[in-house]
Design a protein that fits this description.
single chain, 535 residues, alpha/beta, Rossmann fold, ten-stranded mixed sheet, four-stranded antiparallel sheet, 21 helices, 14 strands, disordered N terminus, disordered C terminus, binds S-adenosylmethionine
Length: 535
């Protein structure tokens, strides 16, 4: 069937009207396009949903290049989906879903047709409202169990700002509460749009959900540890680890996907976690001996402003090494990993627990958890991979703690994976431990010990997440490890320094910060000025 010309085109062809009447205003044009674009996205989403086949998340459809007015289209799609059951009920009640309706082209005529039926639709809505005993459409929507909105969680990047200062800044615009379980996690009202907030754009806070923030806390790395984040992009948990380690230690952030590595590197840099160096007067345990010229100038300047007893040196406090590669290919017996004490394992999964984030709950058949044959095969394949990475993590000799996490609600990716490695885990001396013992929702009773596991619930917590914590006690630490552990805190209160693997000059070029040691009483502001001038 030939498509009719859009209203705008029809209008512009109408010769008998005056030009100022013919031309729609900018607001009209943009509303018209947003309605058309929203209709297109809704059609793909609802058709995909009807066939139980994901055509992409609503966000990915709206943010595709073909959509011009993304913000308005997204708002229209969400608002329509949120009210979809009400819209359907009203249409049925008003009997507008007749044979006549089915013959109507969706390009423009549908809108005109509905405007003609406006009175009938209004009275149908009034009848439904009085039947359900509610006052307005919002109350009708609120009867839906998924309508309750998820609060906006933000995690403070304590490498850049302390939590109290972040709260003070955010309170200028929003109500802010501290989460009672995850330190430095703040709760803001649902719908708080922080994407362009300066604290977000400068990496002082990260938009990260509560469940996802629980994984790094469950791992509990100490400042100065060496940790592997096995499947790390875009780096939310890597950077959370860096904060929890108070900017001291080493994190090897491994990521297979090249595109995602770029995002990871960007986020590591944004968070100020590339490497954190400390300027000190006494030689640190490992120091950078070949200091590049630019840094030498800086150090001389530091000497000039704040006289030191000896020439200052630099030690690395935190080093986040982004490794583009397959975690399964890291050799656990390579001496480079002999000091790794903790592994965070957050492998690719079905993502079924993020249905709320993907706005799936707005879809009519809300099929998170529904699986057909293809889905089952896909889940089995994912579970096979998840088991492999978990087995691999268990084989690192000095590792004491492993967190396995997924944003899936499926037992096959969660309890079943954990249960399948329990034999191997205990042969390596690992046991399951209870993370967040105060949390009420634990693992499904799939095997003895599943009460140690942690789950968050898609309906109650608006996010389905899973955490298993493996702990090994009495690990035989390598000799040099013991020695370094003693070095962890030196007389000046600094932690052990780490030697970068990359050529020194590249490493220094990546340096983001130089912290003066408090003993030298060098004003931080002055140092930061020097850094921005010199590096
Ligand atoms: C669930 S995401 C990780 C999210 C991340 N932990 C965060 O909090 O930002 C899983 C990541 O693992 C990566 N990945 C998949 N297989 C991998 C492998 N064999 N080695 C390393 N990374 C892998 C994927 O590309 C994906 O970026």
């Amino acid at each position: 069937m030939a498509r009719r010309k859009p209203i705008i085109a029809q209008r512009s062809l109408a010769k008998e009207r005056k030009p100022e009447e013919m031309r729609p205003s900018n607001a009209e044009r943009s509303a018209y396009f947003a309605r058309r674009e929203a209709a297109k996205v809704l059609r793909s989403t609802l058709q995909g949903d009807a066939r139980r086949r994901a055509v992409g998340s609503i966000k990915s459809l709206v943010y595709s290049p073909s959509i011009r007015n993304k913000k308005a289209t997204f708002a229209l799609v969400c608002q329509t989906l949120k009210r979809l059951s009400v819209i359907k009920d009203v249409m049925e009640e008003a009997n507008v879903l007749s044979a006549k309706w089915k013959g109507v082209s969706l390009y423009g005529d549908a809108e005109k047709y509905l405007m003609l039926k406006k009175d009938a639709l209004h009275s149908a809505l009034s009848r439904i409202l009085s039947r359900k005993g509610v006052k307005n459409v919002e109350d009708l929507v609120a009867l839906d169990k998924f309508s309750e909105q998820k609060p906006r969680y933000v995690r403070v990047n304590t490498l850049k700002i302390d939590t109290e200062n972040a709260i003070r800044e955010l309170r200028q615009e929003y109500e802010v509460q501290k989460d009672d379980m995850v330190p430095d996690l703040l709760i803001l009202p649902p719908g708080a749009d922080l994407h362009k907030h300066p604290l977000v754009t400068n990496g002082s806070i990260f938009l990260q959900g509560k469940a996802s923030s629980m994984a790094a806390v469950a791992l509990g790395p100490k400042p100065g540890w060496e940790v592997i984040d096995a499947c790390s992009a875009p780096g939310n948990k890597t950077l959370h680890l860096a904060s929890l380690m108070k900017g001291k230690g080493k994190i090897i952030a491994c990521e297979l996907n090249e595109e995602r590595v770029k995002r990871l590197k960007y986020n590591v840099k944004l968070a100020g976690a590339t490497s954190i160096l400390c300027v000190s007067s006494c030689p640190p345990p490992i120091c950078i001996r070949k200091i590049p010229d630019k840094l030498k100038i800086l150090l001389d300047e530091i000497m000039r402003i704040s006289p030191m007893r000896s020439k200052p040196s630099i030690c690395v406090l935190l080093y986040v090494e982004v490794k583009h590669g397959d975690f399964l290919k890291l050799d656990p017996n390579d001496p480079s990993y002999s000091k790794v004490r903790a592994i965070l394992l957050d492998p690719s999964c079905s993502g079924s627990g993020t249905a709320f984030e993907r706005l799936d709950h707005l879809l009519p058949s809300h099929s998170a958890g529904h699986s057909d044959h293809a889905d089952v095969r896909r889940l089995q394949k994912l579970a096979g991979f998840q088991k492999k990475v978990l087995e691999h993590a268990l084989s690192f000799p000095a590792v004491e703690r492993i967190v396995y996490s997924t944003c899936s609600i499926h037992q096959i990716e969660n309890e079943d994976v954990v249960s399948s490695v329990m034999h191997l885990a205990s042969s390596h001396g690992f046991q399951l431990a209870t993370s967040f013992p105060q949390w009420p929702r634990r693992g499904l009773p799939a095997f003895d010990g599943s009460e140690h596991l942690l789950r968050t619930d898609l309906t109650t917590d608006k996010e389905g997440f899973f955490i298993a914590l493996f702990v090994r006690k009495g690990v035989q630490k390598p000799k040099d490890y013991e020695r370094n552990a003693e070095d962890h805190t030196d007389i000046a209160g600094r932690t052990k320094a780490y030697k970068p693997r990359k050529p020194l000059n590249i490493f220094i070029a990546k340096m983001l910060k130089v912290f003066p040691h408090p003993h030298f009483k060098l004003p931080r502001k002055k140092t930061m000025e020097l850094i921005s001038q010199d590096i």
